[in-house]
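To fix ideas, we quote verbatim one protein's residues and fold tokens.
>
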Amino acid sequence: MEKCEMFCYQCQETARGTGCTKVGVCGKRPELSGMLDLLVYVTKGLSCVTTMLREEGKEVGKDVNHLVTVNLFATITNANFDRDAIIARIKETLAVKEELRAKLVDPTGLPEAAVWNGNENEFDSKADSDEVGVLATENEDVRSLREMITYGLKGLAAYSKHANALMQDNEEVDAFIQSALAKLLDDSLGLDDLVALTLETGKYGVDGMALLDGANTGAYGNPEITEVNIGVRNNPGILVSGHDLKDLEQLLEQTKGTGVDVYTHSEMLPAHYYPAFKKYDNFVGNYGNAWWKQKEEFATFNGPILMTTNCIVPPADSYKERLWTTGAAGYPGCRHIEGEYGAVKDFSDIIAQAKTCAPPQEIETGSIIGGFAHEQVFALADKVVDAVKSGAIRKFVVMGGCDGRMKSRDYYTEFAKKLPNDVVILTAGCAKYKYNKLALGDIGGIPRVLDAGQCNDSYSLALIALKLKEVFGLDDINDLPIAFNIAWYEQKAVIVLLALLYLGVKNIHLGPTLPGFLSPNVAKVLVENFGIAGIGTVDEDLKLLVGETA
């Protein structure tokens, strides 16, 4: 492949479905893309060292595990656009790697990524070299599998990071992330080895999602059916987006009694479902829709916005001064709030700014219902089972995943509208914004859209499916009256997909396009072994997945 200014195809919106080569559709420039590639490269190098240390019987500290997961999280689409912040992470990673390499009894056999220790003035040339970046792997099938695993690991790292913020760790998950990163540098691994590693990534994806589920529910209780306000009050407000519940908790604590209201945006909506957050009387509701609507919705909100994780759209000048980041997120020119795991972050400056701002402009009124995570659905199990047995519910369609700005995603709105009235939608992630405000009604009191929460909460969808399998006494999860029509955008969706494949789920429809990182041969393996398919027309897919057209 000819040399290009950058190369990235990790998200669904990648240019032409093959790769961004001049500037990312997400907004990242080549000079940033190169540093993100280099950060992944040096993190693989560090992981070779930590994996070798573990093989020698030595412990690797939580601080190193956290460094790896945050590094990977920072490279997820729309997470961090701040080149200086990424350079700082590269420097830290190299320093930690050198310190740990000195502890190895026998460092022979380490790859170049584990040995290289360049200075900052060498970073750009290294990033542009043949050893770094997606295209460093020449064989397209090997490249495809390596990148699918890498993106799965990025998603797994994101889930781990959120659990870590709540002081929950899983050493086995961390060790796997690092050993898998090391294996991605091992040219002796063939296609069969990489396919096996892909499914192993899915296994640890299940473990990572279980870790986060336990961390969230342990801290905040099990989500429960909740009616969430989508209107506004006449107080200044702070809008919180992203996925990190610990950041939200600390902000709510610090805004108590200040006269400043707090609203959620996009993926933070499900915070309202947790019992622990209902005690805050200034936690008003959800403002707006999915992440890609930021430019217009952040402008009308009027107050400051806190981005706790990924899903940043390069901000307009009209609100850039009001955009704040924390954690793995970052954007040049926007203020960043620091804070280590276990520490209380200082949100006083963003609260002070909020007090100077006008209240949010109302863009809609009413409410939406969610909170159908696994324990809430289990509580309704008898009712659900009776509805299935009576024929009132004919089928469930899992429509979790991501939303995005492509016109082709209107498919999911139309699909939801045309679903027969005896079909229930199970969802998690921001994909729900394509249909969660439609008047789809209920079946015997069971809403036809059951929202389990964030993309982080996709674990609930797996548990619900496994519970139904148990209740109906089935041997195979694929015998359930459940179809999968999933939208994807970024790397957390990849780990969810790999987790579902590991659990044995077949015939998943994935859209609006298949990933650009799937080579024809790898795509063929997924089709033949797992029944992975793209989407067709709405009417075609209704017939295929549900058995009839509307």
The chain is about 45% helix and 10% strand. The chain has three domains: 15-218, 226-355, 378-545.
